[in-house]
User: What shape does this take?
Amino acid sequence: MYRLTIKDEKNRYELTELAKMFVSADELDTSADGPDSFCIPGADELDRNAQKRVLYGYMAELSGKQLSWGTLTGVRPLKLFNKLVRQCGTPSGAEDILKSEYLVSPEKTSLLRKVWDTQSRISFNRDPKAVGVYIGIPFCPTRCLYCSFTSNKYSREKSEAYLKALELEMYAVAELFRTKGLYADSIYIGGGTPSSLEEDQFQWLTDKAAASFLTAKTAEFTVECGRPDSITVGKLKALVKSGCGRISINPQSMQPKTLELIGRAHRPEDINKAFALAKDAGVKIINADLIAGLPSEKPEDMADSLKKIMDLGPQNITVHTLAVKRGSRLIEQDKDMSYSAGDVVSEMLSESFASLEKAGYAPYYLYRQKHMAGNMENTGWSLPGCESIYNIRIMEEDQSIIALGAGGVSKIYYPEEDRIERVANVSNYEIYTERIREMIKRKEDAL
Ligand code: SF4
Assistant: This one.
């Protein structure tokens, strides 16, 4: 048991989070106070990061572990990088601070710098009237082993009532946009798996989203079609016809045994077929998601999956690290996986990044989550000019994103204060359907 005395209440949360990156919550007692407990010396005189550095040193020595992201516990390390660039004037100065003061490894510092470089080359729409629109479909064909989202098994009956409520919300938000002079810079239909809807519903959804929000000023329109087994020619034609230029087809792995183990009802051949159909239908940009650290996978499996995916020619590849979260079936099977899989995941990521760079992809957005194997990160890679603006801006929180549907959390951005205010819809789709008027009222009040 690791015993810590944390006297600085205002930094208790961050210090505890850092300690939990070294050892599991079961091995940690942060309310300890006594001779066998570690207390940060001179904590009153130290700022938060200095306290974290001391704690890092103590935990590293006792556990024998080092963390690639050093003392960083937050979700958006690039936000810190941007802040440091503003402070010291150069990206290389920011890199130095990350390494010396936040103890971030040279490998992760260089990754952040590359993401910063890519984003610096993109011209973003800074018009305060330009917002992102997210539409959530909380249904999937089956539930993945690692899923902790509010995803529900699709059925026609369940989805009908939901779509009726969503229609009301789309109509109300489109009206709000008109009265406030707002417009959608990007539209993103995600979930869940939007393509788990039946063809007529899917066509209705993409048409309705386009009619409500697509204008000549909309830079991109994306629809997640994550499960290849839910993709049909009819759905692809519908989304292309409605003006969608981007989709996401998510293999996660190209290893049949892994796909079975994680509860996805598709095979690698279904991915190949889905890519071929999407290209035939005229989809311009395809993203493919891959996960490092899936149960029983070795670095060779990940390398093989990545190669097979790159052979299909997606413009975007997002390399996720498995997150073992509460609410997933996986955590019931192996609650310590996020600690035990660290070395394997680290090797998988290093190898994948090298292969992606060799193939011409560059990292363009990055975020971290709690409970990720080895405390790593998720990184979006893109061929030049194909980056998803929506993915960048949702992470950097520098634009309002209006989220519709169950579980949608709108972020209203106040540029003068560089501050975000969150306005959440309820996550249960049945309660969302029942209380749709209240969800709409929340948005009217916020906008
Ligand atoms: S596809 Fe995504 S939302 Fe659906 S069950 Fe799998 S992880 Fe959950």
In short: The chain has two domains: 1-66, 130-404. The longest strand covers residues 183-191. The chain is about 45% helix and 15% strand.
